[in-house]
Amino acid sequence: MKWMIISDIHGSYDDLKKVMEIYEEEKMEKLIILGDILYHGPRNPLPEGYQPQKVINLLNQYKDKIMAVRGNCDAEVDQMVLEFPMRGDYSELYADGYRFFLTHGHLYDETHLPMLHSGDIFMYGHFHKPVLKKENGIVLLNPSSISLPKAGQKSFGVYEDGELKIVTLDKKVLQSMKLS
Questions:
Q1: Per-residue pLDDT reduced to its tens digit, 102-119
Q2: Calcineurin-like phosphoesterase domain: from which residue to which, for each copy (predicted)?
Q3: Please, which residues have CB within 8 angstroms of residue 9's CB and are 6 or more apart in sequence?
């Protein structure tokens, strides 16, 4: 099982296209989107390649592979054009004996966690900064932003066989962690 975890696309078709090429090359099985899909937001500059309609068309091709949560820049109208659910504030996945809690990061973050247990994995975006660490038995993963990173390079997350990674768009592994 191999998942790609992305966040904070903010309407950047160019960056999404690059990420989806990697998704295909690496034969990923699931695409997890941690919010802020189409709109750049009032605090962010327009990302390079800002073309939300092309982002819609590209993502809809993968609708059966996507699990997404709502970000603070996502709106109800976005759901009218995206063919996969993305309006929930959080979602949970269970795989390989682990519980993955997915959220954007504007309601829950590493300083305000939901009810989690030791061994759970908390995945969030919003801050546009890569994080991969374990605190109090809980693994925290923020893959950063694929379009507007605030620290470091554009990056995404990968989960495969009990290991999490943060990887740049040029496929350089920034961090990795085995879960057991």
A1: 999 999 999 999 999 999
A2: 1-159
A3: 15, 16, 33, 36, 37, 38, 55, 145, 146, 147
Residue whose structure tokens are 């309609």: 53
How many residues make up the chain in this entry? 180
pTM over 0.90: yes
State how far the Cα of 167 lies from the Cα of 121, in Å rounded to an integer. Answer: 18
What domains, with CATH codes, occur in the chain? Answer: 2-178 (3.60.21.10)
| Cβ atoms within 10 Å of 82's Cβ, excluding its own | 21
Whole-angstrom distance, CA of residue 103 vs CA of residue 143: 12
Q: Using pLDDT thresholds of 50, 70 and 90, give the confidence band for residue 44.
A: confident
Distance CA 37, CA 22 (A): 18
- The count of other CB atoms within 10 Å of the CB of residue 69 is 27
Q: How far apart are CA 65 and CA 82, in angstroms?
A: 13
Query: Closest by alpha carbon to 128, among 145, 146, 152?
Result: 145
What is the phi/psi pair of residue 173, to 5°? -80, 120
Backbone region of residue 139 per phi and psi (left: phi > 0; alpha: psi in -120 to 50; beta: other values): beta
* 3-state secondary structure (DSSP) of residue 62: coil
